[in-house]
Amino acid sequence: MHINKIKVQNFLARLSLFDQMTAEELDRIAIGTTERAALRGTVLFQRGDASSGFYLVVYGQVKLAFVSPGGSEKVVEIIGSGHSFGEAVMFMDKPHIVNAQALVDSLLLHVSKETVCDEIAGNPQFARKMLAGLSRRMHSLICDVESYSLRSGAQRVIGYLLEASGREEEEQFDLQVSKTVIASRLNLTPEHFSRILHDLSEKCLIKVNGRNVHIIDIDRLRVYEG
């Protein structure tokens, strides 16, 4: 799928950031928007790079992470279809503080900083939506800190599995990224993550085969505390 086949304005209009915009406003944003196809493993930007705008994911997944002085990677966030990233740094006039890399073949839109600033100057509603989006991101990060501090490793893994199963909480689904990436996202070592999956399997709550997860008893899984 290529963005020129679905039209930039139509995609933008489906996002909460732009869904109240008029056709003329969307046209202005689209002028400053470029398509970027990113094969799996493509680095979109690195820590220290200057920000020239922010990204929207049409399809695929992008990993935001940083590497410690010791060489270990910490995954901060995994961005999926319909979501954006890079707004905060753009407004701060500071370089990126994380690396962004495509986890799978992805298609993104890059909205230039100049376009965003011009629209904010003449459209207070758009400015409020940008602030709301940044606030949601901050709230999510605070919830992550709370989760890491107050919830056990098993509870974090269970929460991730229930979320990954989708709103319908399907009995079987495939993990979309590697277990190593998921473990880092949940602030666990890969070994601890695998051990938790094994324990949940031993208790007949789930069954794991590679990346395929089968939730055997979702009611017990929801209340299991590890």
Please describe what this structure looks like.
- The protein has 226 residues and is an alpha+beta fold.
- The chain folds into two domains: 147 residues, Sandwich (Jelly Rolls), CATH 2.60.120.10; 73 residues, Winged helix-like DNA-binding domain superfamily/Winged helix DNA-binding domain (Arc Repressor Mutant, subunit A), CATH 1.10.10.
- Helix content is 44%, strand content 23%.
- Strands 1-8-3-6 form a four-stranded antiparallel sheet. A four-stranded antiparallel sheet has the order 2-7-4-5.
- Strand 10 and strand 11 form a beta hairpin.
- Helix 5 crosses helix 6 and helix 8 packs across helix 9.
- It is elongated, with a radius of gyration of 19 Å.
- The N terminus is likely disordered.
Mean pLDDT: 88
Structural class: alpha+beta
**Straight-line distance between termini:** 43 Å
If classified by CATH, what would the architecture of the largest domain be? Sandwich
CA-based gyration radius: 19 Å
Précis, in short:
With 226 residues, this protein is of the alpha+beta class.
